[in-house]
Amino acid sequence: MTTLMTASVPTDAARAAVQTTVRTVVSTATPPPVAPTGDHHSLAIALFAVVVLVTLGVTLWVGRQGNAAEDFFAGGRDFTPLQNGFALSGDYLSAASFLGVAGLIALYGYDGVLYSIGFLVAWLVVLMLVAELVRNAGRYTLADVLGLRLRRRKVRAAAGGASVVVTLLYLVAQMVGAGSLVALLLGTGSPHARTWTIIAVGALMIVYVTIGGMRATTWIQIIKAFLLTGGSVLLTVLLVVRFHGDLGELMRQAAQHSGAGHRYLEPGLKYGGSITSRLDFVSLGLGLVLGTAGLPHILSRFYTVPTARAARRSTMWAIGLVGSFYLMAIVLGLGATALIGSAEVRHANSAGNTAVPLLALVLGGGNGSTGGVVLFALISAIAFATILAVVAGLTLASSAAFAHDIWAGAWRARPGREQVKNGRGRRRRGETVPASRSGKESVSEVSEQQEVMVARIAAAGIGATAIVISLFAQHLNVAFLVGLAFAVAASSNLPVLLYSLFWSRFTARGAVWAVYGGLVPAIVLVFFSPVVSGSAEALFPGLDFHWFPLENPGIVSIPLGFLAGWIGTVTSSEPADPDRFAELEVRALTGAGAA
Amino acid sequence: MPQQQTSSPGQGQRFDWWAAPAAGTPVEPAESSAAHRRSAVPAQSGPTRTDHVRTDRSAEAVVEPVAVGAPIHGPAVEPFAQSTPADPAAQAAPHASLAPLDEEPVADRTEVYREVQASAAFRQIRRSYRTFVFPITGAFLAWYLLFVAAQAGAPDLMRRAVAGPLNVAWLLGLLQFASTFLLAWLYARNARTKRDRAALGLRWDTQDQLR
Q1: So what's the pLDDT on residue A334?
Q2: CA-based, 20 to 30 A from A3: which of A96, A150, A377, B37?
Q3: CB distance from B95 to chain A under 8 Å?
């Protein structure tokens, strides 16, 4: 993912140069022809339009199925584990994973594989420590879990704020990437194409979220995950057939055409340069493994299934899908190198983002052949669907955190705690609501409706903000933002979540400290790191005020987050409330009173 | 979800008895649906309630049968099976028999949770969860970090060829995939066989006490 944007960011001149290189490469036609022709772009555009129409249709269709808070934030909680497993993997596998990881493997061989592993192992943390407990203890967001035992507005504000920050960082990274990527896939180097892509993607995601809420977003994720899996399987099968099932031969050929020989299959091509870069990779790996369990858009997915057991089973599906996806990405990355060659891949896009589409072109029969054109357009459309789905999921999570945690939980100070339920007045979960609270029901129905309204407005606002930031950032190198989002999630969301779930003495002060104690260092360290200034690929290449040597703050900021939570807790003047911990613990592990 | 609460243990318990909607459950009148939905609970813990809860038994005794019955299929199904015939009665009974429970003041909500938390059944669930999850989490995090650190720390070892184009680094990488799948499967199996049933029993029971 980090790679996704790296590529696309060169100046327009450079980009134009890349384009022409591609064309010339084709005409000289060294390895299999590898360049876009007019044909497959018009087909790709048609398929993009189909993706947009289908997703809009789904949005309108399911958007009518319910308007309660539970529908908007949790999709009515009636998805099956299989559906939610697909949706989880859809939310997780961004275009950066689809194109970026395979491209990274095409360029750097084993180091790309190494990179992909962190994304998968992370799911064990989600499965074992988070999924079921969060499903049982919360209603719509991560902060709900904390709110159950730490009933403080500042805790909600902190956790909600961290969620908004994480999703916004991720969102900007995705949208800037989307702009360059779509321009790349459509073969236009014009800056207008990129600008309009960002605006269109942003507008679409606002429409999906405001009209369809979680239900539509989930279905879009499912469709996207289905397309992504199908496309990967198709390419992998074609590739493996081409090599007569001999993966060893595939590896050998890849090494041969990589220009690096046997070093292609060994660690160190990308991350092995110096001690610093190795340490940087450890830092990145730590952030990836621990960050996933703190990503708000992943956590809120667990509320779309009815029970903790269903949450567990959806995570199992997601692990299966994500794992097989990365295995296929490895094969595809090797295949791109074997059939096209690293040099050509790098020519087409310096981060390798076009490796998979180009591979599709070759596997379909090469440039000019119908098969090649169709397959290229298909893969491009899948990448486009991937972008749309991921940004929609992020926008939804962000708006939920804003409306449910910051606005309703902290600003309006409505105790987020109780299951005072359900805008539809179905009151099915009423059983855990003490009688004394039932009087509040009508009030809370109103505020739930308001909450949804605020969430819709917030989605539009956050979407607009993301569009504006992305437009300003479209010529900057924002590749580090995804890594930063994972690092912030791992440094602020995960500590506070784990402490709340497992540490009986954890206090509100500890929670606030954990959130800010992870969030602030992560952002400050990145600000003073080589990705922002002081290097050729930095955000501000002309300046140099960096003093932190690593690009990924995780190795420092994650321990700091945990440490801050611990210090805040032990220095708390008021002790933890054992009653509330009892409630959280019992509810998290048994599901009593779960929403 | 209402459906899943409706899912009475009497039906489909061999498979997805947490989530499966009670297909056979007749449609209930809307106004009393909340109460009726709960009738799934009496169907299961009905006997225990009438026996113990009213006589102010704490969670332990109520839950014990379920927790003990955890070993998958055989015994655990029994209580449910027993109580199913009592269903019609239970359906009628709850309103009357539960009314007294409601008189329990709301403030005791936290007491219920404290009591359940202190109960042997809950402690057993928690122990079984933690003794599995904590060591395994530590192990796979250590295994992953060692794997990543080894790239930096022992590049020569990583380069050693194993078979064909495969070297140690690739082998370990593929093992990471394998171990992830394996641990996920082990965790799910552990949860399914060791915890799910007891946790569900305790859930209904806790909710009963909270009413």
Answers
A1: 93
A2: A377
A3: no
